[in-house]
Automatic annotation (TrEMBL):
Its EC number is 2.3.1.31. It is found in: Cytoplasm. It comes from Aurantiacibacter luteus. This is Homoserine O-acetyltransferase. Substrate binds at residues 223, 354. The keyword Cell inner membrane does not apply. NCBIfam families: homoserO_Ac_trn, PRK00175.1. Transfers an acetyl group from acetyl-CoA to L-homoserine, forming acetyl-L-homoserine. Pathway: Amino-acid biosynthesis; L-methionine biosynthesis via de novo pathway; O-acetyl-L-homoserine from L-homoserine: step 1/1. Residues 46-357 form the AB hydrolase-1 domain.
Length: 372
């Protein structure tokens, strides 16, 4: 049992089976979530924050597994850009993930973990589950939806499919669909997991596989490969360059000789303590399937026809080569085509895709000004 398995999460049972894009229904869906601030009497001050691929509901509170601060604590809280003195912030663990919401590790109808028998899900399915959670919480219309990376995909999907349920949409460092390069990087990670003997076809939850721990080596490699895409070349060079570890530089070998190697290995190993390999497979596949234009019949603008009354703000970063400024401009042009009110800004930051999670004061000002 991992530390994650021993935690009791705040959660809600969805009262109705959840219809999925695959045509299947998923009964007994549980959504784990956290809230911050107070819902006002009119119930119209709620902000829904969507997390990224490896994120979770602990946006502004200590992570129960790692003990680290919330992943966006600098952005969400009293007096912060998303001010919990004014807004009731909801953040839910996405469908298919592993921090309390229903996913591959959840016990299925037959009394065993779903594993790879869990149904294929999409980003729209994730958002559909969160809309159902809002129903449980008694929230009809949101002040805003906010998200970066995969969270931004969810924000755009929410606007396209449930435009009547939010007044504002803030999408940061995201895209309307994955490129072939995006899919290729994800596939490397998936293959690393499935090549690990301990993956055992996904059935590793009951002590099966190598050591009963699951495909930790494969998951660590997947995280290492993905983490490279979150950084910029300039940032890596500034932080690590070609510096060697503090030991005899002449003792060449296949240990972590370079500091950047040690950093990536640490990222991979620590990730396995808090994430589930099968969830990684399902969520990355959902991101690869994401294509708002395809959902709308092939024209991206048509995805936002019903969202003309929603205010949009889109943000990109000049060093983000995973989801580029060109990707964001495509969404801006689609919103312009249907006369939806949209603001767009490209911010300068040295951190690459991860800039939305790090100390970029200009982003703070944008978020405060738009959500405010």
């Amino acid at each position: 049992m991992t530390k994650r398995d021993a935690i009791t999460f705040r959660s809600a049972l969805l009262p109705q089976p959840l219809p999925l894009d695959s045509g299947r229904e998923l009964a007994g869906v549980v959504m784990a979530y956290e809230t911050y601030g107070e819902l006002n009497e009119a119930r119209d001050n709620a902000v829904l924050v969507f997390h990224a691929l490896t994120g979770d509901q602990f946006v502004a509170s200590e992570h129960p597994v790692t003990g680290k601060p919330g992943w966006w604590e600098r952005m969400v809280g009293p007096g912060r850009p998303v001010d919990t003195d004014r807004y009731f912030v909801v953040c839910a663990n996405v469908l298919g993930s592993c921090m309390g919401s229903t996913g591959p590790a959840t016990q299925g109808p037959e009394g065993e973990p779903y594993a790879m028998r869990f149904p294929v899900i999409t980003v729209r399915d994730m958002v559909r589950a969160q809309a159902a959670l809002l129903d449980v919480l008694g929230i009809d219309t949101l002040h805003a939806v906010v998200g970066g990376s995969m969270g931004g995909m969810q924000a755009l999907s929410f606007a396209a499919n449930w435009p009547q349920r939010t007044r504002r949409v803030l999408a940061i460092a995201t895209t309307a669909r994955h490129s072939a390069q995006n899919i290729a990087f994800h596939e490397v990670g998936r293959q690393a997991i499935m090549a690990d003997p301990a993956w055992n076809g996904g059935d590793y939850y009951e002590g099966q596989g190598e050591g009963g721990k699951g495909p930790e080596k494969g998951l660590a490699v997947a995280r290492m490969a993905a983490h490279i895409t979150y950084l910029s070349e300039a940032g890596l060079t500034e932080k690590f360059g070609r510096r060697l570890q503090d030991r005899d530089a002449k003792s060449f070998g296949f240990d972590a000789d370079f500091q950047v190697e040690s950093y990536l290995r640490h990222q991979g190993i620590s990730f396995t303590d808090r994430f589930d390999a099968n969830s990684y497979l399902y969520i990355t596949r959902a991101m690869d399937y994401f294509d708002l234009a395809e959902e709308a019949g092939g024209r991206l603008a048509d995805a936002f026809v019903a969202a003309r009354d929603v205010r949009f703000c889109l943000v990109s970063f000049d060093t983000d080569w995973l989801y580029t400024t060109a990707d964001m401009r495509e969404v801006v042009h689609a919103l312009n085509a249907v006369a939806a009110p949209v603001s767009f800004v490209e911010l300068s930051a040295p951190y690459g895709h991860d800039s939305f999670l790090l100390d970029v004061p200009a982003l703070d000002r944008v978020v405060r000004g738009f959500v405010g």
